[in-house]
Amino acid sequence: MVIDYSIQMTIAFRLLIAFFAGILIGYDRERSGKVAGLRTQMLVCVGSALFAGLSIYVANSLGVLGQDPTRIMAQIVSGVGFLGAGVILKNGNRLSGVTTAATIWTTAAIGVAIGSGFYIPAATTVFLVLMLNPMAALQYKFGTKGNTYMMTLDKKDMKRVVELFGQLHARVLQKSVHLSDAHIHLLSTEEKNDKLSQELDDMGVKFSLEPTEE
Questions:
Q1: Do 158 and 185 fall into the same domain?
Q2: For residue 214, what pLDDT is reported?
């Protein structure tokens, strides 16, 4: 069997591109303190690119009968799915790591695209992945991202507390009153909760704030 070294050089070139793409994504995630950082994202991207490049080469260049290059790519998707599931953690009522798992899955897709020679779609996807942090910053700023909490307080204080929520961009999901107590289901963050607690203490409002099942 004669192996075309020009094809090997092509695959090696694509692996280098995947290497730098993985580093870009990994550095961005590691800077955010995520579990799957630079090395993980780089390895996923390079490994996926190698599998994709080899599968195409085996099917097209070596003339292996009945070999479908998409079969190996399909296995990449399922294999990376198990890797992503390993970073999803449930701590009490909170589920974390879903975005990290999705990033690993997307990094694998980028690697497959690079290994298949689709550089422009791969570069576009890398750019979109790098937009995760700016998007999250906007979500937290305008109150569309956070965790759900249940606040219990005296019903006479509910109106001014709700006004305070608006100032802090903490979104009220539901309000209810039972006897003398008011219950407010809200979407907030720990940072906003610290500010909220400080403001309510200054106002002399007694309350309890607990995370809820999402």
A1: yes
A2: 44
